[in-house]
Specification:
Layout: E1 2-4, E2 9-13, E3 20-25, E4 34-40, E5 43-48, E6 53-57, E7 65-68, E8 80-87, E9 93-100, E10 108-116, E11 121-125, H1 127-133, E12 137-141, E13 147-150, E14 161-165, E15 185-189, E16 194-197
Parallel strand pairs: 12-14
Antiparallel strand pairs: 1-2, 2-3, 4-5, 5-6, 6-7, 8-9, 9-10, 10-11, 12-13, 14-15, 15-16
Length: 223
């Protein structure tokens, strides 16, 4: 599955068909766009910048079936500039939301929410609860699909932390924090609610060169 056409369309391809098919679109001029998609428990889920969650059933031989669960259409939306979906190994579907605070010392905020599809509900996980919800795992989000890794297998990682890259979206208007100096690769500690740089010694200079969209690289097996 891929998000394309200025993030207004979602298309998919299967090995059986060997071609791309359109799965869902967002109406031009609505102001919304797709933020992320993930495969979870046999279904694809998409999330828009307005917080609309869609479940796509692609097994229909004619047209994909779409079910909309909830939306966060409220005054907070203009402050949200990044959203991610995470499918955990233990079966939870999580949403990570980056937003910009106004008139506060800490200008940026990360919220971790659990998506309860069965109850059509979004539950915000606060501080220690959010840290415990990761069950000794670390989350990676960015331009690729999200990854949830166990600390016992990767001792170099920090538990209950979100590792993230800060992509340049459609334009700077959609990513105001870039102008405020927040860019590159970072870590958010859910327990202490603190943002940190992954490469502090670089003083963020590495992210001033093109390309400005940093990504995680997943090596092939055997490398």
């Amino acid at each position: 599955m891929i998000i394309h056409s200025s993030a207004n369309r979602v298309s998919f391809a299967s090995a059986i068909e060997g071609r791309w098919r359109l799965a869902s679109t967002i109406t031009q001029g609505s102001g919304d766009r797709y933020a992320d998609c993930v495969y979870h428990k046999g279904r694809f889920y998409t999330l828009t910048m307005y917080g609309v969650l869609e479940m796509l059933d692609l097994d229909n031989p004619c047209e994909p079936r779409k079910e909309i669960f909830f939306t966060e259409r409220n005054t907070e939306n203009p402050l949200v500039f990044l959203r991610f979906l995470v499918s955990t190994p233990w079966g939870d579907l999580l949403q990570i939301k980056f937003s910009r605070r106004v008139h506060r010392t800490k200008r940026l905020e990360l919220r971790l929410c659990k998506i309860e599809v069965e109850n059509n509900r979004l539950v915000r996980l606060r501080s220690a609860v959010a840290a415990a919800a990761l069950r000794e795992h670390a989350i990676f989000v960015g331009q690729n699909h999200s990854v949830c890794l166990p600390i016992r297998d990767f001792p170099e990682l920090r538990s209950s932390c979100v590792y993230f890259t800060t992509p340049c979206l459609c334009n700077d208007d959609h990513f105001p924090s870039r102008r405020e100096g927040w860019k590159g690769v970072g870590i958010y500690d859910l327990q202490n609610q603190i943002f940190e740089d992954v490469f502090p010694s670089c003083e963020r200079g590495y992210s001033t060169y093109l390309p400005i969209s940093e990504v995680w690289i997943t090596p092939s097996p055997g490398l």
